[in-house]
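Reference record:
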Amino acid sequence: MAKHAFLLLSSPESPGKLANPLTYAAQLHDAGHEVAVYFDGDATTFFDGVEDHAPPAVEAYEGARERGLVAGVCDHCANAKGVADAVEAEGFEIDGSEHSPDTAALVEDGFELHMV
């Protein structure tokens, strides 16, 4: 099976740009592929008031989270956008200002990158 890494960069103001890749990630996972999802850039603001976002995005996020697909949230972006506390409230560790994920390492490990 293949390896897929989804790098979510879009603002929650465009819920389809979050809901669709999260749904695709879940479908790939359910079919046996290895999947990792990273929230980066404006997508980190999704964690500020998760329950207030459009239902399709929230449901897709919950499905990805239940499957353990959310591999990380960019520390630098979460801090810069003032949402580090909200990210940590969702159970993700923000331990510094390092930018993540390491895309070179993901590619070297055989992941195909999907950026939205």
